[in-house]
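Reading a protein record of the kind used here takes little practice once its layout is understood. An example of such a record is reproduced below.
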Amino acid sequence: QVQLVESGGGLVQAGGSLRLSCAASGSIFSVNAMGWFRQAPGKQREPVAHITSDGSANYAESVEGRFTISIDSAKNTVYLQMSSLKPEDTAIYYCNALVITTTPGSYDYFGQGTQVTVSS
């Protein structure tokens, strides 16, 4: 079993910043990649940012230049620094990890989500 625990969500005014963290733990042999998705009310879940274990990152066009994803592979932890936040960034943010388990096997995991609310 692998668990992803997110933290750092909250309420912020437009133009403000938040930093999300997500730590993976459990029966992990290695973490190949981690990322963040988000789901706003009435909308489908969408990818926000993705990073491989060697640090190669990519972003959704809507957050490019405002969000920065980083990874601490030694801690199996991914971060999302969000700046210049807009009301349209309001959503539940879900951590994602592609994990090679000790079983072994390759599995895609999601965290329970953390709420980010940006007020105008």
